[in-house]
Design brief:
By secondary structure, the protein is an alpha/beta fold. It has 10 helices and 18 strands. A 10-stranded mixed β-sheet has the order 1-4-3-5-6-2-11-12-15-16, with helices on both faces. It has a 6-stranded mixed β-sheet with strand order 9-10-13-14-17-18. A two-stranded antiparallel ribbon has the order 7-8. Strand 11 and strand 12 form a beta hairpin.
Length: 351
């Protein structure tokens, strides 16, 4: 019996009338109730407010990608992002929640302004205001929430174009936590039908919840054949990321890569592909280079064994100073440990 089944009875009343989401953003629980006029969906402004100097500035920037695993934010990873913004303007984007990030980020004292945009419809995502404010930023941070909202509202819009311009043409940092991290790869778990658990993925990698998007959204350097996962330790998501990689291998004929980031941990990728792991937990760098799954079909249990070496995993512990590293160009790291994950008839195993 998986967690969905166990919790169904006890949560039935609590969830009545609520949508099922993949992740949640703890900052959205803050008692900051600023909303755009009209409550969203194409109102007169998408801004939840700005702190600092509202006049736009242009500062020298350095490109990068920030992958944060959710829960409590990692201060030193945020400082890394702010430094790369060169003292410029930082924009936070989300589809629900508050402007709680404004004071948090601005409190580090080294940027011109921080503004939060609530973009909760395709109308908003195609607005000139959203496009201009993102393109004029020196860094963008994508808050947590429900990643299906991000895919549904932002994909194939001016927001998507502006984010890719910011990262690849202007050379700025794009970062995200929780759901905001989950959409960073060229492959991404959309959560269109809600979350999927490890036991479900291993039992049937093509189950109704296992919705994987491919391309056509964010275009981050070094994340081409890669999928991310967050909250990697809460609940355990090792089996589901293995299942995602199996699908990528089987369906797309690639050598799949994955990054699983635990809560209170962040991977900060520099422009040259090197990265540092900040925080109090760990990040997992996974690659399935030893052959395609033996059994990966709809309705059957996953077997991806390959002599108990299906997916090589390099685990890197986060530190306050980011002393442990991983290089996305060479797919190798320092300060970590290696092992293999594999699936045998629907059971996750380690070697």
């Amino acid at each position: 019996m998986n967690l969905k089944t166990m919790m169904a009875g006890s949560l039935a009343l609590a969830m009545l009338g609520c949508s099922k989401t993949e992740d949640f953003d703890k900052k959205a629980t803050d008692a900051e109730l600023a909303r755009k006029p009209g409550g969203g969906g194409g109102g007169s402004s998408i801004s939840l407010g700005i702190v600092g100097d509202a006049a736009d500035v242009s500062t020298p920037t350095t490109g990068g990608t920030l992958l944060m695993g959710g829960s409590t934010d990692v201060d030193n990873a945020m400082k890394w992002m702010i430094t790369k913004a060169g003292g410029g303007d930082i924009v936070v984007i989300r589809a629900s929640g508050t402007n709680a990030y404004n004071s948090y980020i601005y409190g580090f004292g080294t940027c011109n302004s921080v503004e939060t945009l609530l973009i909760d419809s395709r109308t908003d995502a195609n607005s000139t205001e959203a496009e201009t404010k993102i393109r004029n930023a020196e860094a963008v941070f994508i808050a947590g929430g429900d990643q299906w909202n991000y895919v549904n509202y932002w994909k194939d819009t001016k927001v998507e174009d502006a984010l890719n311009y910011l990262r690849n043409t202007k050379g700025c940092v794009i970062g995200g936590t929780s759901a905001g991290c989950a959409i960073q790869g060229n492959y991404y778990f959309t959560a269109q039908n809600g979350t999927v658990y490890s036991d479900e993925m291993l039992a049937n990698p093509y189950n109704q919840y296992a919705t994987i998007g491919v391309g056509g959204f964010l275009s981050n350097p070094y994340l081409g054949n890669l999928i991310t996962d967050t909250h990697f330790n809460n609940p355990d998501r090792k089996g589901r990321l293995l299942g995602f990689l199996a699908r990528m291998s089987k369906d797309n004929g690639i050598v799949p890569k994955g990054v699983g980031v635990e809560e209170r941990t962040a991977v900060c990728i520099d422009a040259d592909g090197s990265s540092k792991v900040f925080g109090s937990n760990s990040a997992y760098f996974m690659i399935g280079e030893n052959g395609v799954p033996e059994t990966c079909v709809s309705g059957s249990k996953l077997t991806w064994n390959r002599s108990a070496q299906a997916v090589k995993v390099y685990k890197v512990s986060g530190t306050t100073g980011g002393t442990n590293t991983f290089n996305f160009s060479s797919w190798s790291g320092t300060g970590g440990t290696s092992q293999f994950y594999y699936a045998d008839n629907g059971t996750l195993k380690f070697n």
